[in-house]
TrEMBL record:
Residues where Mn(2+) binds: 28, 75, 158, 162
Keywords: Iron, Metal-binding, Oxidoreductase
A matching Pfam family: Sod_Fe_N
Protein name: Superoxide dismutase
Ranges of residues in domain Manganese/iron superoxide dismutase N-terminal: 3-83
Chain ranges of the Manganese/iron superoxide dismutase C-terminal domain: 91-191
Length: 195
């Protein structure tokens, strides 16, 4: 594989404003995510991991190598979980699966927001497909990711403070309100179809 690179954002840095500012993306994508990529390259250079995929490294590593590889993967997935054309209620197969599990989109949204708001410290809140085919809401700490489980990630929100501090200071609940205006249901439907 060679060296890992910071992926381009799937939209311009100002495309998510006013919900997520270009200044936040400057720091979150342009500095935080870049640091994980740089660290990962430094940790893999000249080792057997240099030729492995990101997913292979995540599956078989721990400590700083895992942290930086998983954060690179998690952030890339997060950028695609957002869209300037997103927001509103889910549609398609994701909506059907949400209603099958939670009874209504509003109930799901409340539960997802509650889990994300209540996540202690730094981490991620995921919508995943379980092995029985149903959806679930999973919160992971730090760099943890569903890739190390049997669950398939469908959508994620980053609840590390650097994801929202510039725009919302420590008001995670306000950031989550904003997230629902840019959530990318097309991406979620694509992931559900491939899971």
């Amino acid at each position: 594989m060679g060296s890992f690179t910071l992926p381009e954002l799937p939209y311009s840095k100002d495309a998510l404003a006013p919900h997520i500012s270009s200044e936040t993306l400057d720091f979150h994508w342009g500095k935080h995510h870049l640091t994980y990529v740089t660290n990962l390259n430094n940790l893999t250079k000249g080792t057997e991991n240099e030729s492995k995929t990101l997913e292979e490294i995540i599956a078989k590593s721990s400590g700083p190598l895992f942290d930086n590889a998983a954060q690179h993967w998690n952030h890339t997935f997060y950028w695609h979980s957002l869209s300037p054309n997103g927001g509103g209620e889910a549609d398609g197969a994701v909506k059907d699966a949400i209603i099958a599990k939670w009874g209504s989109f509003d109930t799901f949204k409340q539960e997802f927001t509650k889990r994300a708001t209540g996540a202690f410290g730094s981490g991620w809140t995921w919508l995943v497909k379980q092995t029985d085919g149903t959806l679930a809401i999973v919160t992971t700490s730090n760099a943890e990711t569903p890739l190390t489980t049997d669950a398939k990630p469908i959508l994620v929100v980053d609840v590390w403070e650097h994801a929202y501090y510039i725009d919302y200071r420590n008001a995670r609940a306000k950031y989550l309100d904003a997230f629902w205006n840019v959530v990318n249901w097309d991406f979620a439907n694509k992931n559900l179809a491939q899971s």
